[in-house]
Amino acid sequence: MIISIEKKKFSESVNIVSRFAERKNTTLPVLGAVLLIASDDGIKMRATNLETGIDLKIEGECTSKGVVAIPAVVFQQIANSFTQEGKIIIEHIGDIISITSGTNKSSIKTIPYDDFPSIPFPENPKNRIIISGALLRSLFTSITSCASSSTIRPELASIYISIEGGVLTAVATDSFRLVEKKIPLANKGTQGKFLIPAKNALDISQALPDNDIIISFDEHQCAFIGDMGTLISRLTNAVYPDYRQIIPKESIVEAVVLRKDFENALKRIMIFSDSFQKVRISLDPKKKIFSLFAKNADVGESSETL
Question: In terms of pLDDT, which residue wins out, 70 or 104?
């Protein structure tokens, strides 16, 4: 194998793919590697931790074909060391891969790639929608923090995705807080729902392109397909609670405040919250006042009025 890639593109690609390599597995070392493929289809990088997987297309020149598995940690460290513009040349001979950049040449010992698992793809192509990658990234990053960090109840450690009536609804809750976001879709024919682990969704969001992608899913896997390649995640096999029952149907009192004022007030007030992170909220419709109060015996107390 002999390939040539722009330094910037190489560094970006290695950093994206390395996120999907397994960092703790010792029984199957190839899971901790990035698979570099040069073929008639072009240059690709693959990685999987059996929970998520990526098949990324790379722009570059291929002089000779081949396949090689490179330890992800070392590969990422080498990629992050490049700061100049220009190209790098990657050459694979025996069990060594050399990366040449100008007068610098690094040699890395490779890993046998025969045991690298195939990345599963959803079996039912009918379940597919088209959505902006930038929009989906914003959706995932904004709601994953509300999912549970514990795996005792895997459904609460996941994001619930429902597609119905041309609307994609995403929900996350840890049983103390809940967030629901809705996005209108261009194609209104697809119906379905699935649970994607919140951690997987966050990893995938960091690798999504800005342009449109296709989401395809079945009972076990979900794929995100774009010009850059394919991202795969295992789905959670569980039943999501009926969250709509806990959303209040009506309110006793309502306050409308400027979002930025509310955000800044919360940031300051949380400094003084106790170990349970409690904040007292008061509303006075007659005075048109919305108040926040927090007290911590070790820190002090604070009040905010909007």
Answer: 70
- Structure confidence at residue 209 (pLDDT): 92
Tens digit of each residue's pLDDT (9 = 90 or more) over 216-275: 998 899 999 999 899 999 999 999 999 998 888 888 888 899 999 999 999 999 999 888
Residue 118 in tokens: 């195939």
Judged against a pLDDT cut of 90, whether residue 115 lies above it is answered with no
Instruction: Report the domain count for the chain.
Output: 3
Dihedral, CA of residue 10, residue 13, residue 15 and residue 19, to nearest 10: -150
Same domain, 219 and 139: yes
The Cα 228–Cα 238 span in angstroms is 31
For 9, phi and psi rounded to 5 degrees? -65, -40
What distance lies between CA 157 and its chain's CA centroid? 14
What domain range is 102 assigned to?
2-109
pLDDT tier at 305, thresholds 50, 70, 90: very high
User: Is residue 60 assigned to a domain?
Assistant: yes
